[in-house]
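Hi Prof. W.,

I finally got the HTH-type transcriptional regulatory protein GabR prediction working! I wasn't sure whether to trim anything, so I left the full sequence exactly as given:
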Amino acid sequence: MPAVLLTDMLTQKLNRDGGEPLQRQIYNVVRQAVLDHKLVVGQKLPSSRTLALELGVSRITVALAYDRLIAENYLSAKSGSGTFVAQTTVRPLNVSAAASHSKQSMMLSQRGAQIATLPGGVKQSHGAFVPGVADASAFPFHLWRRLIARHVGKGELHLSGYALGGGFAPLRAAVASYLRISRSVECEAEQVIITSGTHQSIDLCARLLADPGDLALVENPCHWAFPTVLSASGLKVGPCVLDESGLSLAASHVPRHARLVATSPSHQYPTGAVMPLARRLELLQHAREMNLWVLEDDYDSEFRYDGLPIPSLQGLDRDERVIYVGTFSKAMFPGVRLGYLVVPSHLAATFADASAKLYRPGQLHTQAALADFLGEGHFAQHIRRMRIEYAERQSLLRASLERAFGSEITLSPAHAGLHLFARFDSLTPKATLASEVQAENLIVGFPCFSGECPELEDRSIVLGFGGVPQATIGDGVARLARAVERTQRKHRGSARAALR
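And this is what came out:
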């Protein structure tokens, strides 16, 4: 514990108006901190002179308390080095039965327990084959560092506060301009709400557009973030039918209490399906008839390899019921943690105000740098360069998988994105496969299916290539093939044993 923290602890507990001497109070506070392991063995304490000065007491008062603690083996003094917490076998005082029972009853709430069981992403941000991450090593940090430095200093103190009003105004304008050109999104700067990423964007939509207990519909399978964040926000989550043309509301069961539907029409995660124009218009029509808000997740729209990006669903919407969700984490680097919403004009002020009330956002220096990064053309240049690189990585990964697995595996189309969706012809139980790929020092993603879909879950994996250098893709696929072969062999052995 740094000296200033010990001073803070003592300052909170010393009673200068009471009858107990300050020397004894200091002794009791430090002794209890040692017993409670707040002060750990070997930790250096401030000198008696320093502590006395900071507490505003005489040095002899602190020295006498230290002397008693040293004599009772709570502290030890080393000549020329200072005073330290001693090695001791003393344990905290016994807790009463009532206090013990109280601690045991202090458990998670029902919501907390539910969140603990919800799906989550992989805990790595690089390597073969972490899904959905960009290659941070390819990002022009030399430019980013210069842009950040431009906005850090006493001359930019207006950027040191909270980001009110939906975010840094020049960034909102730059995002709106970029989306109008690249994604055919119909919006003005005031409709852009800057967030700390897709998760916060989903949470804000859930809180403002639905009530606890309302139903949110998601694609089946979908990205794990949607069911996790929507459920944590108090909504119920139900599956929608997903086919080769994307989400189909017409083929799905949509209860009356459904309020939201989340979709990724331009590059569905994880299957890679692209929603054609006819299905998009059908989706908007059914959303109108069922009075649903549509969350359009366009998380990796920049990386399209078979032509120009597909225009957004939002650009086709004439009822102002589509909320467009985007992120910079895929296009730049994962830790940038900046995303955005494009909301209907009549809700823009409400969303901006709610974002400020709920999250008290900041990062204005980063937002200012990003506005320059977009406005000066660095973002577009980076996208063009990485689109070529990622296309080559995807092609190499696809070829390596086809050589290793042949007809035993079916891969998603090569339209866009930073991952491939792979489906095995034979059952490959995901619990066993997860263990086997870990043994090969690999990471793969497993699709998030809603409802009971054990066979689909045990045939499908997601392979990211964004953070995998080309030179390592072939070796990674070879290790994956070994892990899959061991998994399937174990499964066949278990099946034979069950028949005996």
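The chain has three domains: 3-85, 139-376, 381-499. Does that look reasonable to you?

Thanks,
D.
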